[in-house]
Structures are given as structure tokens and as C-alpha cells.
Amino acid sequence: MTQLNRLSLQNFRNCESAQFNFSSGLNLIVGDNAAGKTAIIEAIWLLASGRSFRSQQSKQLIRHHTDNCVMFAEIISSHNTEQVQKVGIQKSLEQTNLRMDGETVKTHGPIAKSLPVQLLTPESHKLLEEGPKIRRQFMDWGCFHQSEEFILCWRHYQKALKQRNHALKKKLPQDQVQLWDSALVENALKIDAIRQAYLSELEPYLVTFCQALMPEIEIEEACQYRAGWPKNTEDLLKLYQLNYTKDSQLGHTQYGSHRADIRFKFAQQEAINVLSRGQQKLFVCALLLAQASLHEKVLNEPVIMLIDDLPAELDEAHRHKLLELLQILKIQHIITSTSMQLIPILNSETTRVWTIAGGSIEQI
Ligand SMILES: Nc1ncnc2c1ncn2[C@@H]1O[C@H](COP(=O)(O)OP(=O)(O)OP(=O)(O)O)[C@@H](O)[C@H]1O
Ligand SMILES: [Mg+2]
Questions:
Q1: CATH number at residue 305
Q2: CATH code for the domain of 252
């Protein structure tokens, strides 16, 4: 199974130095407010995704009065348990160095592929509340892991979009704007097909986990995918041509994969209008569990789930239910809490607990 075996941190946030030897089941990190719990989750997420969920600036991540931070992890692969992969990130104010098995890597893609990590934080309900970017990130996480083609199409698309928007903004001649249309269309259609296929595979899992976590809610068709252009569009290239004048007035490209979205509906109504705050959090849990199960089915490897401040997320019964599902699905989970009493230990053999205070950790 894919497992985060070891984690080592240096000068990350308030943590001078920490080493974790994780178990395959529940890994619980307990500490008071400001102890450094979120920092640990943030460091793992940064290793897995290449970015923090709290701050874009390296300065904030590096421990005060030091000049660089290091995150290093050992991953055991699901396909070859003998094989240990080593991944690391070193960040200074000026640069970021990525390492994988002793070699420098240029992009974060290979590290992200080998470390499929999902994240639940007290902010996760924003997936329903905020703009479409966070929902696209959710959907594209799955597309990235399941489709070899996706990342290439996405890079080509982004490049064409950037050039087209640059030409629009600088008011360059029409032919220099439209030069990019065919690359945009070609890649948008591929991205669209991958996203649609992904969501239709995900949907039955989502229904199952919604029923497990919120049996009180009736759910039929939960996801409605929006491509990023009008539904009845038959010819995307023509749409770009027809919208050239509007695009040049706006100074950017209106339609495309960068505008895609997912709408979540219950009984014909937007999820956000029907679900309580707690139910919204449960719905996000169901989305992540659905994604984890589909990932396991397609790639034959489990994901690793990070949950920051679990008690802030869910009440006692739902905490129990979620932990039970994680155990049944054999998902390694790394969870933080301000109190140990709030986390039921369902299997002591696969559980490890640490306390954290002032950035220093101790295993108990
Ligand atoms: N670059 C940094 N250098 C040193 N300390 C930092 C740095 N960035 C943040 N901190 C401090 O690290 C501490 C830990 O923050 P963190 O958010 O990880 O705590 P937490 O245990 O998750 O707290 P809470 O329970 O309130 O969510 C905070 O006191 C914060 O001020
Ligand atoms: Mg925190």
C-alpha cells in the first residue's frame, strides 16, 4: 500500500526539528492551540502538492530567524513494498529545491504522483461556498492521478490561454489573438472529456458515502458538471471566433476549461442552500472518500488522508463514523486534535499518538 512511512521536518514554521515514523492506520497529533499541529499537516500537504493551503510566501513557512526549511519523506509504494521512495523539498527565500530518490527534479509532478494525499481542514466547507477554483482543483486532483494525458493537456492549455490573454490585453492584431484558438480548443476538448469521465465514475461512490454519512438526506444525482462554455455549444472554435470582440473588450478569454465548475445538488436545489454547516462538512468528507475509493479502484493504491482539527469538523457520532470508514477502506490517516479524548481509537495496533507543544513533538 502507499504509505507515508517517515516524515522529517527542519525549521518549518514553529518546528525546529521533528521526525515521525507513521503507522499504516491512525496517526494522531495532539496539542493545544498554537502548538504547531496545522504546521505538520501543512508540511505534508506541501510535500504532496507543492503548495501550502495557508500561505504562498516561503518567508512565512521558514522558521523565524533561520534561512531555509526542509521537508523530507519516505513513501512505501503499493506495488512494491520493498521499494522506498524518498522525496524532499528545501525552501529558502530565493528558491525551492525538489529532490526525488537522490536526484533533483524540475517540476513537482513526479512527487505529487507518488504521494496521493487528500486534505480536510476546518476550511474545507469552502469547497461548496466559494468560487469554482477550489472545485476545479478537487476534480483535477482525480484527473491528474488517473489520466496520464491530463497534465500535458493542462499545461498546453494554460500556455495557449496565457498567450491569448496577453495578446488581448496588449490589444495586438486579431490574427495574433486567434493564433492560439486551435491549441486552446484542442486541449479544452481533451480536458473536458477527462473531467466528464472522471465525474461520472465518481458519482456512484459519492452517493454511497453520502448515504453512509448522512442517511437523513435523499440524494440522486449529486454532481452536475459545467464545461466552462455554454451547454449547447456545438463548435468551440466558432464560439471563440464569435466572441472575439467581447474578449478583446474584456481583455481576457471568457470561455474555456479555466471556467469549468461542478454544481452539487440535492432535490433540485444547490447543496449550499439545503445542507447545514455540519452537513456541508460531511458532504466534503463524502467527496474525499469517494475520490479515495475511486483512486484505489483505478490505480490499486490507497490515498493518504490528512485531517486538521477533526473535532472542529464533526460531532462525536460522525467522527466515529468517519474513522470507521477510513479504517475499513485501509486509508492511512494523519489527524490533529486539541484533545485526545475527542478521538476514538478503533484499532490500537495501527494507531500512533504524538503530543506537540511549541513545535516540539513527542511520541506517546
Ligand atoms: N515562520 C514561523 N516561524 C516561527 N513560528 C511560526 C511561523 N509561522 C507560524 N508560527 C507560529 O507557529 C505556531 C503554530 O501554529 P499552528 O497554526 O500550526 O498551530 P495549531 O497547533 O494548529 O493551533 P490551533 O489549534 O490554534 O489551530 C503559531 O504560534 C504561529 O505563530
Ligand atoms: Mg491549527
A1: 3.40.50.300
A2: 1.20.1050.90
Strand 269-270: give its sheet, edge to edge. 223-226, 261-266, 269-270
Ligand 1 pocket, residue 91 CB under 6 Å: no
Indicate which residue's Cα is closest to atom 30 of ligand 1.
34
Ligand 1 centroid – CA 34 distance (Å): 5
Overall average pLDDT of the 186-191 stretch: 98
pLDDT beyond 90 at 79: no
One domain, residues 55 and 201? no
Query: Which residue CA neighbors atom 5 of ligand 1 most closely?
Result: 14
CA torsion angle 152 160 194 299 (round to 10): 20
What letter does residue 224 receive in the DSSP assignment? E
pLDDT, tens only, 18-58: 999 999 999 999 999 999 999 999 999 999 999 999 988 88
Give the H/E segment covering residue 19.
strand 15-21
DSSP, collapsed to helix, strand or coil, labels residue 10 as strand
289 and 307 both lie in a single domain: no
37, 63, 70: which to mutate for ligand 1, most atoms within 8 A of CB?
A: 37
pLDDT tens-digit series, residues 122-156? 999 899 999 999 999 999 999 999 999 999 999 99
Within a 13 Å sphere around the CA of 327, how many CA atoms are in the beta-carbon half? 16
**Together in a domain, 35 and 48:** yes
**Quick one: pLDDT band at residue 211, thresholds 50, 70, 90?**
very high
Structural domain count, the chain: 2
Atom 17 of ligand 1: nearest residue by CA position: 38
Residue 267 pLDDT: 77
| Residue-range definition of the domain harbouring residue 85 | 1-116+301-364
pTM of the full structure: 0.93
Among 282, 298, 314, the domain-final residue is: 298
